Amino acid sequence: MENKEELCELMDKLLLNSLDLIEQDVRLSQDIERLTTEGQLELAHTRFTKGPNAASAVQLPTEDYKPFRALRTVSEEKPIENDTNRPDAIPHLTLECHPVAVDEGRIDPASWFGILRPPSLNNAKERFTRSLDTIVERANVRATLISYLNVYDVLNKRKSEL
């Protein structure tokens, strides 16, 4: 990469890819907002149709409630290339789904509302779950974008040195 023209071409490609990532980030942000709003509306629908006691603080745990572990957790994976740990590798976040296991302390909070839950409550749960998936996807897009912009800065410094 001794040639300044090749360096500029690489920087241009990097910026174009960065613009695509920015567009993805905006789209994912809108999806998160939409899914969260829809979930909140489904909860409101449940309270409206079933009454204020169908989904209220009465079902929520109190101070003496036993703590529990999450059914979905975020884990970070660093890509391994040729068994060398590169500090510039982009971390990738994944959402791990754990089964309900009372002995491990993993319970489904939706069970607080009984077996015959209103469909709108199940819809709200599904919307919030999809929102969580989208949040993790957006975090990966942002990590990639930050990495691209850091590489761009390095290439820009190298270009000014030529």
3D structure, described in words:
One of its GO terms (molecular function) is unfolded protein binding. It comes from Anopheles farauti. The model has no long low-confidence stretch (mean pLDDT 86). This protein has a domain at 1-51 and 119-161. The chain is mainly alpha-helical. It has a two-stranded antiparallel ribbon. Helices cover 56% and strands 7% of the residues. It has helices at residues 4-50, 119-161; strands at residues 72-77, 92-97.
Summarize the structure.
The chain is mainly alpha-helical. It has two helices and two strands.
Question: Which descriptors would you attach to this protein?
Answer:
162 residues; mainly alpha; two-stranded antiparallel sheet; elongated; Vma22/CCDC115; Vacuolar ATPase assembly protein VMA22; unfolded protein binding
Helix/strand order? HEEH
Strand order of the largest sheet: 1-2
Largest sheet: 2 strands, antiparallel
Q: Which structural class do the helices and strands define?
A: mainly alpha
Could you report the average pLDDT, rounded to the nearest whole number?
86
Radius of gyration over all CA atoms, rounded: 23 Å
Distance between the termini: 11 Å
Share in helix: 55-70%
Number of strands: 2
Strand content: 5-15%
Unreliable runs, pLDDT <50, ≥5 residues?
Answer: none
In DSSP terms (H or I, runs of 4 or more residues), the helix count works out at 2
Protein name: Vacuolar ATPase assembly protein VMA22
Organism: Anopheles farauti
GO molecular function, one term: unfolded protein binding
InterPro entries: Vma22/CCDC115
